[in-house]
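Please, structure for the following, as tokens.
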Amino acid sequence: MRVEFDRDTCIGMFQCVAEWDRFEKNTSEGKADLEGSEEVEESVFVREVPEGEEFDATFAARVCPVDAITVYDDDGEQVVP
């Protein structure tokens, strides 16, 4: 499972931070940061979800008010918009 985070879309509500500790507050920029991620295109960050953290990652995506977080299963199918 992997997570894709569109940082430009993020509005800094930090609901993802409360749900998954891989997201961190970046108050100086008013955005969240995805720990351990790789920027694959401008402001789009991707990382694999560690085993046992699938529920937290999925829930972080579900609570994002602007759908800046997308979760994909191992087959590349979108799990959460």
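The CA atoms of residues 23 and 34 lie 5 Å apart. The mean pLDDT is 96.
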